[in-house]
Amino acid sequence: MIELILQSDATDPSPSTAPRSAAEAQARLTQAQAQVAALLNTPAGEDARLTLPLTTGGLALGDAAGAAPAQMPFAAVLGCADARMPPELVFGQGINDLFVVRVAGNGPGGECVGSLDFAVHNLADLRLLVVLGHTSCGAVTAAADAFLHPSGYLGLADNLPLRGIVDSLMAAVVAAAAALEAAYGSEATALPGYRAALIELAVILNAAITAAALRRTFAASIGEALDVVYAVYNLHNHVAGLPGDSASNTAPDGGWAAGLASPPADAAALAELARRMACSGFIERLLRGAA
Known about the structure:
This protein is of the alpha/beta class. It is built from 8 helices and 8 strands.
């Protein structure tokens, strides 16, 4: 049995304090995510329990009867709408800890950025903006398939909402295709797992590009008290992070490294990230058709 318990003690005289810096907020999310991943990876037949403490503020209770509770999130998350990756569960946080914005493909559309803009300028405890992608993303898959089979894109021509999502993800797909060709040659497209590798590399680059865009959008607010990071949630091993290097190729998941990453600062840094991820054990195993 696996138990995830949210626990609040109204008599506790020392509620947890909000992170004072972006680094503290990142450390809190990283530590809690590791605990959640360990819980969800409990071997079959074994019992495990994780208790997450909640303060009165975390329960979103007002200070007085009839009063609306104040928002007190220390991090904002731009995540995918996919039902398999609720950010509060992924990062082991309680009510009122995260300001969550979700949309298919976790792209920085106008409504999403507007919501984050509200959080940045109105929520005093906010210390971190997190872009969270995930493996096997359906939106990125649709964009990758449109790239691989342009004739099929005509089916999206009159579906403007879906087309808008696919179009917003195409830059990441094109960058992923270029990185795979640079790393493995023009014959990469003939390898058995090319489509799967293209999709997952595009997922990573999409999260990185979005985080970089948010860092530029909120550049005036970025500093010790607020930063932007990103990660990809692996649906198979429940770890939020990025693939490790090729030395981890023998690992069952191709070597998945936990943690929140800083976005690339410029085009050269994005190209280097794309090269490194294309050569990772995770992508290489997919490209070769490994299960």
